Amino acid sequence: MKRFKKWGASLVSVSLLMLMTTACGGGATPSSQPATTPSQSNGAAPSTDAAKPTYNFKLAHITPPTHMWHYAAEKFRDELDQRSGGRMKLEIYPSSQLGTEADMVQQIASGSVDFGFITAAYLSSRAPSYAAWLAPYAFKDLDEANKARKEEISKKILGTLEEQGLVGLDYFFAGQRVMLFKDKEVLKPEDMAGLKLRVTPSPPLTDFYKSAGAATEGLPLPEVYSAVQTGVIDGMDMDLDAAISNKYYEVVKYGAVTNHMVWPAVAMASKVNFDKMPEEDKQIIREAIDAAANYSATTRAGQEEEFKKTLSDNGMKIYEIDSKLFEPYMKQFDDKYGPTDPLIKEFLDTFRK
Questions:
Q1: Residues of the domain holding 147
Q2: pLDDT digits (tens, 9 = 90+) for 106-137
Q3: Is 6 a member of any domain?
Q4: Could you report the per-residue pLDDT of 42-84, keeping only the tens digit for each?
Q5: What are the residue ranges of helices labelled H in the chain?
Q6: Total domain count for the chain?
Q7: Do residues 87 and 52 touch, judged by C-beta distance below 8 A?
Q8: Distance from C-alpha of 63 to C-alpha of 245, rounded to nearest angstrom
Q9: Does residue 298 fall inside a structural domain?
Q10: Among 2, 31, 128, 258, whose Cα sits 20 to 30 Å from the Cα of 347?
């Protein structure tokens, strides 16, 4: 019995010694790695064996929450969340909350904002090849334009943003351009002579209207309503979606559904942030953007008649102008801009039928 007690005491001593050694770090291996910490607004948390990076992204655009581009941003957010298994979250800043398009592009390039939907019209003042998308009557409808975004020339134009610290991801369409007039029913291009129209600041757009005798004003979108209301401008170049979401029908009487240009926003990412991501996460972003772009174009294409009826029901006279009346202006664009940039020429050669 005494020997048994001695042996038992020795076993207890050995066990205590082993516990003390382990507690002091004597070669024990941790059972798991630390959990991944959520990133800041523009970066990824360190990746570990047990967890992939998580992201809290920011996206900015100019339109109100009732506009198709905002719905597309929400679709992008949902696709990111689903495809990443909840690792990618997205905050959306609509209605120029983060400033003008110039401000947004600067923020995206610096990395303080991750994504933006920026109009091709604005970008044409920074990267001339984007003027190609403003070619009058290049596409019959949004379906044609949506197919065009997949063409090699469209991807080449996206690639020109790299030198500005931006990654061009895709194109989002929000209808084609129409003309809204406060008091005058314009029935042919020459009727615009002497009118002052709000046009997104962009050389091809201003050239298009000035060639018909109109003067142009490059007002920020949030200022347009009051400018028409007070008579600072006589009308605007716009899309039907924005005419409704911004309630321009309250201050303009006439809407000429010319559909003279498609109106893409360019979905872009911050290069400094995008380049840091694993290829797997870059691919999730590309696929989510593609899904959102298709959603935007196909949804908007089916709303044309509904939007025209909404504007008519709210007191606007909605009518069409024959595209043949604009053929001289189409030629002027092609003759002027085609020779200025090989990508514009390739675009025109590809899509002019």
A1: 55-351
A2: 999 999 999 999 999 999 989 999 999 999 99
A3: no
A4: 444 444 545 899 999 999 999 999 999 999 999 999 999 999 9
A5: 2-23, 68-83, 101-110, 120-123, 142-148, 152-159, 203-210, 224-229, 240-245, 271-274, 279-301, 304-313, 327-337, 342-351
A6: 1
A7: yes
A8: 9
A9: yes
A10: 258
